[in-house]
DNA sequence: CCTGGGCGCGCG
DNA sequence: AAAGCGCGCGCCCAGG
């Protein structure tokens, strides 16, 4: 599918048949797409899902499957260096690399029909010629399914009760202030802070001024971070920490935020909608990012404003300890999979006698995934190595490749970026004749930094692939439960956060949805890791408000 | 005046 | 206890 002036060009490719080309006027597009999708469940191919599918959604059409050429190209370029450069795509890639593209450019990425077809062929050849075509193909399909879902969730929005939100804000901040002013409670707390520090003109939003005022009052902190302030015994600490917490709420998810991101919902829904702008593939590891609205940082404080429509409910599900489970599976580490059997992997480590307490198990495991070297995590690392040599070798191997400037790949073949030129320059410098100890220290430090990145990349990236497979399968199951998948009357996904989903569903279907969520999780595990015995247990709650999910 | 970096904190 | 991964965003502040 390619957009043209006044219409959209559809080219139907059927194996063995000649391509059938038609140009559909925009006014007829939705009906035509619905008809084709129902008749033959095609895989729609287009340059960019946000552009084209966004338009289709607004016109009232949903589709089952697609290839997002822009996202697939990004993956393929890293993974196999193909498809080859092309002037038409270079612009897109450059803009993405520079991160300075105005959103409007992204939102209207269209290409000539010939280019869409040519690019699809180039990508198909690149996959076929790759080392593991099956896995890469699965990754491209999952990425594209994610793109469909992101567009749908953006379009449908997250049910949001502005009244609850406003009450919540007013309760803790006081009445809404004029634009740019502090709410009364914040102003009072600022005054308390000024009094306690004897700094009458202090603006507590200024980190530098605050640090100076703390020092003047005889408080010797290095930073103004929360955890450091918590160690200090001084009357300023309580009001200052409260100020920081509320100031954050006010600026990040306050009234101004709601004005910008919450809009009226569909007619008859009764509830408004928060419309975040998800960016599939926006993180190097394959996780989604967001652009505006901060949907991936929706604080627990305001989750009470996420409320189902009357007659509807929310099914909230999250995976317990996704990343260590993914590591066990990709490493084929059966000992670790045994410890991961059941709901609580960290307790599993204790029960298997690997580590003494659950708290230690958590610290040690996260340390292994992130590359902690010091503190409790560093001390516990040898125990994990002895208990789970296979899993350990996967992350250690990834770290070693990163430290020497190599790249690593996720389970399905998403490839890490090479280190930046400045990194390589520093590594080269340390071997020159006039290199100083300082140069060598710097090079080693940067090498270890990059090693921690590649170490985490393989696990975080594979976890993101699991989550995409989970989403794609769940989306299909929900469509089957609810007819054509329109958001008006059938269960649909409204939120996704790395290892957590929210489905908005008519109350009568809540149990079916909960079952679907579990089946999809099991299916994602089998799709990626076959019969390797690793569980992906979910915490599922059926609630009226997100705040009530555990 | 705008822009980019640093900081701090929200999320996983 | 407080560093080890990936992000976005709002705020200050220095530099142009």
Automatic annotation (TrEMBL):
Q: Which reaction does it catalyse?
A: DNA(n) + a 2'-deoxyribonucleoside 5'-triphosphate = DNA(n+1) + diphosphate
Write down the species. Georgenia satyanarayanai
Enzyme Commission no: 2.7.7.7
Citing just one GO molecular function, the answer is: DNA-directed DNA polymerase activity
Q: Which UniProt keywords apply?
A: DNA replication
Q: Where is the composition biased (Basic and acidic residues)?
A: 428-440
**Protein name (database record):** DNA-directed DNA polymerase
| Pfam family of the protein (one) | DNA_pol_A
Q: Where is this region: Disordered?
A: 412-440
Q: Pinpoint the DNA-directed DNA polymerase family A palm domain residues.
A: 299-509
InterPro entries linked? DNA-dir_DNA_pol_A_palm_dom (IPR001098), DNA/RNA_pol_sf (IPR043502), DNA_polymerase_A (IPR002298)
Give the matching SUPFAM superfamilies.
DNA/RNA polymerases
One of the GO BP terms on file: DNA-templated DNA replication
Instruction: Identify which top EC class this enzyme belongs to.
Output: transferase
């Amino acid at each position: 599918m390619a957009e043209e002036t006044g219409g959209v060009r559809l080219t139907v490719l059927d194996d063995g048949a000649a391509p059938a080309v038609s140009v559909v006027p925009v006014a007829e597009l939705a009906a035509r797409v619905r008809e084709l999708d129902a008749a033959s469940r095609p895989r729609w191919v287009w340059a960019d899902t946000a552009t084209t599918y966004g338009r289709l959604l607004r016109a009232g059409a949903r589709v089952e499957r697609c290839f997002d050429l822009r996202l697939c190209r990004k993956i393929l370029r890293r993974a196999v260096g193909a498809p080859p450069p092309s002037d038409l795509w270079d612009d897109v890639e450059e803009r993405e690399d520079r991160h300075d593209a105005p959103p409007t450019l992204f939102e209207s990425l269209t290409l000539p029909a010939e280019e869409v077809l040519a690019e699809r062929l180039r990508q198909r050849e690149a996959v076929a010629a790759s080392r593991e075509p099956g896995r890469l193909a699965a990754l491209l399909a999952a990425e594209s399914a994610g793109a469909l879902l992101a567009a749908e969730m953006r379009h449908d929005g997250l049910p949001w009760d502005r009244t609850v939100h406003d009450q919540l804000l007013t309760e803790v901040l006081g009445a809404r202030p004029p634009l740019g002013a502090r709410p009364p409670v914040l102003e009072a707390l600022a005054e308390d802070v000024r009094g306690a520090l004897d700094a009458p003109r202090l603006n507590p939003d200024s980190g530098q001024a605050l640090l100076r005022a703390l020092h003047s009052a005889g408080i010797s902190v290095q930073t103004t971070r929360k955890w450091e302030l918590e160690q200090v015994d001084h009357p300023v600490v309580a009001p200052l920490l409260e100020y920081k917490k509320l100031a954050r709420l006010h600026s990040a998810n306050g009234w101004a935020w709601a004005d910008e991101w919450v809009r009226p919902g569909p007619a008859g829904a009764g509830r408004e909608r928060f419309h975040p702008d998800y960016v599939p593939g926006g993180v190097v590891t394959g996780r989604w990012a967001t652009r505006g609205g901060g949907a991936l940082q929706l604080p627990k404080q305001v989750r009470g404003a996420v409320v189902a429509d009357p007659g509807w409910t929310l099914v909230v599900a999250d995976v317990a300890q996704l990343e260590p489970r993914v590591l066990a599976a990709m490493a084929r580490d059966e000992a670790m999979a045994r410890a991961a059997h059941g709901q609580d992997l960290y307790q599993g480590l204790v029960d298997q006698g690997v580590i003494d307490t659950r708290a230690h198990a958590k610290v040690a495991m996260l340390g292994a995934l992130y590359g902690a070297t010091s503190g409790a995590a560093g001390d516990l690392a040898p125990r994990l190595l002895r208990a789970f040599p296979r899993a350990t070798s996967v992350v250690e191997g990834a770290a070693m490749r990163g430290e020497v400037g190599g790249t690593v790949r996720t389970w399905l073949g998403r490839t890490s970026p090479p280190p930046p030129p400045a990194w390589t320059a520093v590594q080269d410098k340390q071997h020159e004749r006039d290199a100083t100890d300082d140069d060598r220290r710097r090079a080693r430090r940067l090498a270890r930094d990059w090693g921690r990145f590649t170490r985490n990349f393989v696990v975080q990236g594979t976890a993101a692939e699991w989550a995409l497979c989970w989403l794609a399968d769940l989306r299909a199951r929900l469509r089957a439960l609810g007819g054509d998948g329109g958001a008006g009357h059938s269960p649909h996904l409204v939120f996704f956060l790395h290892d957590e989903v929210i489905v908005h569903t008519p109350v009568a279907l809540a149990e079916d949805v909960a079952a679907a969520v579990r089946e999809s999780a099991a299916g994602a595990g089998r799709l990626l890791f076959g019969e390797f015995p690793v569980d992906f247990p979910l915490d599922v709650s059926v609630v009226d408000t997100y705040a009530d999910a555990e």
